[in-house]
Amino acid sequence: MKRPLNRDTHIVHLARPPYQDGRRPVNPPVVRASTVDFETLEAMNQARSQAVRGEQSFIYGVRGTPTSFALETLISHLENGAGTKLFSSGLEAIAAVFLGFLKPGDDVLVVDTVYAPVRALLNRFLADRQIQFRFYSPREPDLGALVKPNTRMIYTESPGSVTMELQDVSLVAAAIKDRPDIVIACDNTWSSGFCYRPLEHGADLSIVAGTKYLGGHSDVLMGSVTANEKTLASLNETVGLLGMAVSADDCALVLRGARTLHIRYPAHAQRALAVAQWLEGHDEIVGVLYPPLPSSPDHDLWHSQFEGAAGLFTIELADSKKNNRHVSGFVDHLKLFGIGASWGGFESLALPCDLTGLRSIEDSRHQGSLVRLHIGLEDPRDLIADLDQALAKWAAGVK
Ligand SMILES: *Cc1c(COP(=O)(O)O)cnc(C)c1O
């Protein structure tokens, strides 16, 4: 029997162009196309029937190009799914999941620690369309009890935004095993399909912002949704009906980033762990929220289900109101950390996170000032020295 190839080898070898005349470029060509020109009507009809069967078929730019198909293939493999669709951003991918799988009168349960723009999407868009939503605690012990007859989706994100609570997707799936009409969707951006595959734990849809680690260089936006056999036809239909399409140039950039995911991703984690451990021992820090740390309440779950970690975690600074210090007194003094949203690029970032209005359930709140750190590919000794001097200035109240 032939031994199956390991993941890293697949990342390098999958989704490469075919040889033609005994040669090929290493990367799929960037195919910019609206019109696809067929030589015969028969060729066109054949290609169209392939598309109708849900196969990747190059018939018109909106329906995908050889470049987007290559990226879809790679992500499907990472996520171990039946098929993947691409979107112009992570947020668009999430919106497509809600649009495609919910209708007026339906109810959706959403984890309270959801990515903040999703909360706005629910409040401002779904509510107007008579779709009910309810938030549940990331620590909810009995999700099954919250499910109603009209519940059609459980939307989760693991780990949760900012506060990093992990979700055991297999427990979510077990809680609704008698309800095949409910779809479980999971935002898997932190893992980027690299260290966790929600579909293997019972999720039906896995969403990744390729903007983060897949692109990996802070220069491109991309979203993906990977479906299992149960959800693929609906996902394909939604994307087709709404005419959602991505540019071949962006796909090529993300594909280029993805070829080194297995080198970059663990390098972020290794540096992040060194920095997180150092921060844990610092007097001004009351908490480091990062599942790979043994102090994390989710450490055991992380250890049993995850094969690695992202370089993204959150620190909690000693209460700023009590001692009248503002978080800017820390962040503004950092020299190697940019101040910015997004993450997953090669550079380190710091972002103060105020959870006001972003949690509906009391138990997912924290007391101190939260700062999310993305640890880039710098030498961690330099990052630690930078954090050390900024924390000293914060402690001294230097403006
Ligand atoms: C960044 C992010 C998104 C959205 O991705 P964009 O491409 O920036 O729209 C969605 N979910 C999570 C968890 C993210 O971090």
UniProtKB/TrEMBL annotation:
Pathway(s) per entry: Amino-acid biosynthesis; L-methionine biosynthesis via de novo pathway; L-homocysteine from L-cystathionine: step 1/1
Keyword Nucleotide-binding: no
Signal peptide: none
Enzyme Commission designation: 4.4.1.8
First-level EC class: lyase
Swiss-Prot/TrEMBL cofactor(s): pyridoxal 5'-phosphate
GO terms for biological process, alphabetical: L-cysteine catabolic process to pyruvate; transsulfuration
Catalytic activity: L,L-cystathionine + H2O = L-homocysteine + pyruvate + NH4(+); an S-substituted L-cysteine + H2O = a thiol + pyruvate + NH4(+)
UniProt keyword Hydrolase present: no
One MF term in the entry's GO annotations: pyridoxal phosphate binding
Keywords noted in UniProt: Lyase, Pyridoxal phosphate
Residues that bear N6-(pyridoxal phosphate)lysine: K212
Family of this protein: Belongs to the trans-sulfuration enzymes family.
Name of the protein described by the UniProt record: Cystathionine beta-lyase
